Amino acid sequence: MQITRIKSHVLQYDLPEELGYSQQYYSKRSAHLVEVETDEGITGWGECFGPGSIAVANKTIVEKVIQPLVVGENPLDRDVLWHKVYNLLRDHGQKGMPLQALSGVDIALWDIAGKVAGLPIAQLIGGFHRTKVQVYGYGMMLRRENPTAMASRFRDEAAVIREMGFRATKMKLGLGPKADVKLASAVRAGIGPDFRFMADANHCYTTADAFYVGRALEELECYWFEEPVAPEDHDGYRELRAGLKVNISGGEAEFNRWGWRGLLESRALDIAQPEVCALGGISEYLRVLALCHAHFVPVVNHVWGSAIAVATNLQLLAAMPPLPGGLYPSEPMLEFDTTDNRFRDELLKEPLDIQQQIKRNDGYADVPQGAGLGVEPDRDFIRHYEIAA
Ligand code: CA
After folding, report:
1. Left (φ > 0), alpha (ψ -120 to 50) or beta: where does 296 sit?
2. Ligand 1 centroid to residue 82 C-alpha, Å
3. How far apart are the CA of 148 and the centre of ligand 1, in A?
4. What pLDDT, on a 0 to 100 scale, did the predictor assign at position 206?
């Protein structure tokens, strides 16, 4: 069996309204899918993390840099190919876009391996620790409105997300420490006292400001405080974790086993959030997961993007061992974006329809049982949204 071609698809549409987080506002939704073709008619699908112009640049890396290294090779040799590509790219990028590009290719190779074996990826990894996964819904994005209006919108949106059937919710921070505390109070008011919420700063604070916000989050019984400071600031993370009661989470901007080793050894995290579509794909995710568990740090995957990313993460969450185990173990959650995203809702021939599943199923989504990722994208849909890049 041989790889014959690798094709990237960058999809994009204009959002009905602008959305924001602490670093920027954005008005387009995009996704970057990778398709690996073989001489036996089996095609694998993967996804690369990174929106807009990042996706366009990653497409070039996938097609112009990685493709020539793997065409003609056996797609079942995914770990061999991972190391061939990584070792040759090492001098040009051990983190960031080269790894995002490699991630999409590696995920597609796992999809092929599952299709060849006739098994879901979770089974290839080692089996189903769970066949359904609890889902948390994130929303409460920033918009260009005054802080009082935003707090009132956050309160209403939080209540709606709870009503939709999610097991927990997550809000954005980013207006500045004082205003952010008001936003978090509004979210707690919207969901009531007995529902789990998390807050995501997307690394916008200094350590001092993060302490101020973190103390307020403790009072509000927030479950985790995500990316409080810059991902490079391991000392800041460690000080926050030692000084605050709220769980400190992060890691979506970290790459491969060597990056994660440093993050974990610095004792930075209560909860690790690896992003499989960025850190190096499923092959590298499994090594990072083992490192996290070796440090007794629980993992709740970061999830972003299309239904391919959601399906990939459902397989990984199904195959994740409990840490440390018990009659009532702490269970991972699937991260799910509640804002407008056609690439998540309409890409597949048979949509996952997570929103309907959680409504029916007390906040849980089933893990697809088909071969590979267990899902197939609709090529007409891809053609409709694909941009020239
Ligand atoms: Ca985040």
Report:
1. left
2. 26
3. 24
4. 98
pLDDT at 388: 86
Exposure letters 170-198 (e unless 16+ CB within 10 A, then b): bbbbbbebebbbebbbbbbbbbeeebbbb
Percent of the chain topping pLDDT 70: 100
Mean pLDDT on 314-318: 98
69 pLDDT band, cuts 50/70/90, is very high
| 320 and 334 Cβ atoms separated by less than 8 Å | no
Can you list the alpha helix ranges (DSSP code H) found in the chain? 52-60, 67-70, 78-89, 97-117, 121-125, 147-164, 177-191, 207-219, 234-243, 256-265, 276-279, 281-294, 307-318, 342-345, 354-360, 379-385
Summarised one tens digit per residue, pLDDT across range 226-262 is 999 999 999 999 999 999 999 999 999 999 999 999 9
Residue 389 has pLDDT above 80, yes or no: no
Residue 253 Cα, ligand 1 centroid: separation in angstroms? Answer: 9
The overall longest dimension of the chain from CA atoms, in Å, is: 60
pLDDT given for residue 171 in this prediction: 98
Contacts of 256 (CB under 8 A, 6+ apart): 86, 94, 95, 99, 279, 280, 284, 288
Task: Name the amino acid, one letter, at 27.
Answer: S
Rounded Cα distance, 66 and 109, in Å: 13
Coil vs helix vs strand at 259: helix
Q: How far is the CA of 335 from the centre of ligand 1 (A)?
A: 10
Phi and psi, residue 238, nearest 5°: -65, -40
Residue of 129, 203, 302, 384 marked active site: 302
> How far is ligand 1, taken at its centre, from the CA of residue 334, in Å?
13
Sign of CA dihedral 249, 251, 257, 262: negative
Domains of the chain with CATH codes: 3-121+379-385 (3.30.390.10), 123-366 (3.20.20.120)
User: Catalytic: 302?
Assistant: yes
**What pLDDT, on a 0 to 100 scale, did the predictor assign at position 113?**
98
**Residue 85 phi, psi (nearest 5):** -65, -50
| Residue indicated by tokens 């073989």 | 38
The rounded Å distance from CA 122 to ligand 1 centre is 25
| Mean pLDDT over each residue of the chain, to the nearest integer | 97
